[in-house]
Amino acid sequence: MGPPPGAPFCQEVPGKFPPRQGILWVCDRGKEGDSVDWKKRRHILWGAWALALGLAVSAWFVSSPDVPALPAGQTAAALPPKGYLALTFDDGPWPKTTEALLDGLAQRGVKATFFLVGEQVVDHQDTVRRMADEGHQIGLHTWHHVSLQGMTREEIAAQLGKTQQTIQAVVGPEELMLRPPYGFVDDDVEWIVAHLFKKGQISLTLNGAVLTLSAANGDEIARYITKREFLDKLLTSRKEHPKPEWVRMVREIMRELFGNNAPTEDEDGLMRACRKACADLAATLANRKQYDYVKPYPGKAVIDSGLALLRPVAQWNDPMEFYKQMYQRQDDFLDFAEDYDPVKAFFAGVQKEIFDKALDLMRIYEDSKSFIVNDKVENTVKEIYAILRAAKPYQQIQKLPALLDQYNEAYVEVLEAATKPVLSTIAADRARVLEVLDEKPYKAQYGNAYAAQFDELKKKAETCNNVTILRSYADQADAVRIRLLNEMDKRDAELATPPTPPVQPGDSPVTPPTPPVRPAKRRKNLAIKSLTQTTSWRIESDADIDAYLAALRRRLESELDPDTIVNVEF
Prior knowledge:
The protein contains 20 helices and 11 strands. The chain has about 575 residues and is an alpha/beta fold. It has 4 domains: about 180 residues, TIM Barrel; about 100 residues; about 120 residues, no CATH class; about 50 residues, no CATH class.
């Protein structure tokens, strides 16, 4: 039974969605007797999310070339000609209207499909037999004309099974198609929602949040659509599309800021790619901003403005909001793209390495500048700082290598000049200590250890590139000299004290007469620098001499006592 050979059977779909305001009939290109397996289609849809499947399901799809592929063995020649119309009728049979309809169809040689209500078939079996005998196709329309949406599978099976048995009892064991009353079963609706969402024709909102494939994957979307727990939470609406100029602007921003043309991305894909690119760049900028706390790199203002611009993008989940916000801020994004290019090049290339070297040398200079009196060094430093402290030094960084060489050449001269007196002081202090030690009975025991302390200071001074630190080695050598001289005086005092003889067992302690002994004086070694408490004397008159000598005398008197010999080391 059914349409003429080669004619397709048809499937009902909504003419508008949402809401349903009419019926549009489009053909499912299958073999005669085929039924539409919507559940299988839904599973295929979620299993291959990237593929466009199935039938056109709304009026705006009818003009689209998006149609399913031909079944195996089906040829284009077997398809009906353009303009083929399928006639279908629901809810019958009715004794008067259905019979009159059958008369009209018979007169015109037209076949149709009748979707029958089971309880109506019971009372009008003759009309049903006539449908079958005259070559019309018969299908199921439930037993009581009830909506199958929301029913359990057991309830659906009862409605359809009883209706099928009743019809087959009248016309024989024919394969029967189903048209659900009011349009759909749950599987139909779920597949249509999924298909429309995939095609970008509707929007899904869950608990006030717009769902996108950037925020949820296909499995999650399928769960939201098919599970009853989301029935009252998931809202559908006709999807708004951003204006073409909005989309073009986002593509331009992607090209200018990220070097990505994204030529094949759809609206959602473009949004997803742009948001990810913005998030990645924001993370990079946040990491580079940390450099500011260690070294004063250029581009801080640009990085700060970029973070303020990029971070809000993550909050624009709704596509319309995303595109609108990006369009409204296009000047900010394009300006940032222009400003960030040299900053990006700085951190990615050799400029940062050159900048780091200059910063390191200037740090050493800052530590030593109090002791540097050299016009060549100071003038070169000014030029270097002019570049390092510029807001946009990128074009000038290329000058730094030559300036650094010039600085190093002049600084080496300063360093060499400062090194000579330091090494001389270390050598003199070493010689003085070893001279005194040479007269001591313990010189063999301590000679190498004493000399090693000065040798270590000499090695440090010879390799030092910081004038301030270099000068400190001279002071350290003086301090070591005084400490070692005092150490030897202490040993001498210990050696001069005779040991007390041990008392043997059984001996009566005898207290020898103690002659009056004048205690030996202890020695105190002092550096002249500690006595003068100044690095230089400025003398312009006899009065100046008297003043400095008076101060020195008072200092010496404070160190002197009857039991002390003060040894002044120059």
